[in-house]
Each structure stands twice: as structure tokens, then as C-alpha cells.
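A.,

Following up on our hallway conversation. C-alpha cells first:
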């Protein structure tokens, strides 16, 4: 799969996550599931997101069951960026 197609698929998935989280006014359990999927789509090890700290609009720091921590943010170009902390 080309990188362009992978990026497009990822952006589409993130858009669905944003719409779904906007429609659901549930606890962070929903955010944790969505962020778990976002990290998995990036091919990064996580297992399951166990804690989420929201730093701002579309800006999260997450801790994973596997012990990894990530910063997940939508950049100025509208792309989702996942950085290992």
C-alpha cells in the first residue's frame, strides 16, 4: 500500500473518530478506544490505551497498556501526528 493511500486512510479514520467523539458525550473510555485505533493505524505498539490526558482541541497525551506513551495531535495541515514520548 502506498504511503499516500495509507495517509488518506488514516485521515479518513481520524475524521470518523472526531465526528463520533463529537456526537457522543461519554466518558474518556470512548476517547481511549478511538485513540487506540489511531495509534494502531500508525503501526505503533500500544495494545490498549489506559489513560488519556486532553491538552487541547484534538491534542492528547496517552499511556498504553504496553507501557508506551504517545502525543497524538492534529497538525496545521489537518493530519494526525503520533509522537512517542
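Then the amino acids I'd put at each of the 85 positions:
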Amino acid at each position: 500500500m502506498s504511503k499516500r493511500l495509507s495517509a488518506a486512510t488514516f485521515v479518513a479514520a481520524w475524521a470518523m473518530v472526531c465526528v463520533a467523539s463529537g456526537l457522543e458525550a461519554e466518558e474518556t473510555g470512548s476517547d481511549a478506544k478511538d485513540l487506540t485505533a489511531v495509534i494502531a493505524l500508525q503501526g505503533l505498539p500500544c495494545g490498549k490505551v489506559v489513560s488519556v490526558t486532553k491538552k487541547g482541541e484534538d491534542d492528547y497525551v496517552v499511556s498504553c497498556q504496553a507501557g508506551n506513551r504517545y502525543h497524538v495531535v492534529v497538525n496545521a495541515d489537518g493530519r494526525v501526528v503520533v509522537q512517542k514520548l
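The two ends are 27 Å apart (CA to CA). Curious whether your intuition agrees with the design.

B.
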